[in-house]
Design a protein that fits this description.
Blueprint (H helix, E strand, L loop, with lengths): L3 H22 L13 E2 L5 E7 L2 E7 L5 E6 L10 E7 L2 E10 L2 E9 L7 E8 L3 E9 L2 E8 L4 E6 L5 E5 L5 E7 L2 E6 L4 E5 L2 E5 L4 E4 L6 E4 L6
Antiparallel strand pairs: 1-2, 2-3, 3-4, 5-6, 6-7, 7-8, 9-10, 10-11, 11-12, 13-14, 14-15, 15-16, 17-18
């Protein structure tokens, strides 16, 4: 009987250490996927992200139904408020994180190469604090991040190519989505009108259908307005 208290204490310590292990080495179990933009590689595998537990968790959903979870330690420490966007380019997964610190907004882009479990920082930049980042792409190692200044006509394009920053004004409506394409910056307005910037001028694209501009800059989709399909 005198050993029972020691056994109980040992069990409590064991459960405590096991919970610490689970909190550190397993993703949060709240079921929330913290990602603004998913990534997809050339093979069709989809990448998601989850923040919490002192790490960024990358989840690879394979075409065949398999799943792989990768734990990446990051700095600064990620939190539930950290926005994450993903993009795959030439077999490399790129991770963009954005956060606020002391009233300033920052973005950081890191890459996760094959057979690695740690992120390598590629680029970091301070941006306008009231810009809503809405699109993230990487083309042959060049980063393109597009954002819209809240409730204004201004569209921002950030790039790590010579640390460029470009600002254009739509002037014909409030944009709600914007992305970078080889043809230039494309913007979708509240009234579902689509515009493409040629240098600094925005040309309207006349479409009879409603339009949704896909995050990731892979194009846009249209559907019949009022369709029940």
């Amino acid at each position: 009987m005198r050993y029972i208290p020691k056994i109980i204490i040992s069990i409590i310590i064991y459960i405590f250490l096991l919970s610490l292990y689970g909190a550190f080495f397993l993703p949060s179990s709240d079921g929330k996927i913290s990602v603004k933009q998913v990534g997809m590689d050339e093979e069709g595998n989809v990448y998601l992200a989850r923040t919490g537990n002192w790490a960024l968790w990358l989840i690879k959903a394979e075409v065949g139904g398999g799943r792989e979870i990768i734990r990446c330690s990051t700095f600064p420490v990620v939190s539930e408020e950290t926005a994450v966007s993903l993009f795959c380019d030439e077999g490399v997964l790129y991770v963009q994180q954005s956060w606020y610190r002391q009233g300033r907004q920052f973005i950081k882009v890191s890459c996760l190469e094959k057979d690695r479990d740690s992120l390598t920082k590629v680029w970091e930049k301070e941006v306008e604090e009231d810009v809503d980042l809405c699109d993230f792409q990487v083309k042959k190692g060049i980063i393109f991040t597009t954002g819209i200044k809240c409730r204004s006509e201004e569209i921002f394009l950030y790039s790590n190519e010579e640390d460029k920053e470009r600002v254009v004004k739509l002037e014909v409506g409030i944009p709600v989505q914007a992305c970078y394409t080889p043809s230039g910056i494309m913007a979708l307005t509240e009234s579902q009108e689509l515009y493409c910037f040629d240098n600094e001028k925005a040309g309207k694209m006349y479409l009879k259908n409603g339009v949704y501009l896909q995050a990731g800059g892979k194009g846009f989709f249209s559907r019949n307005t009022g369709s029940r399909d």
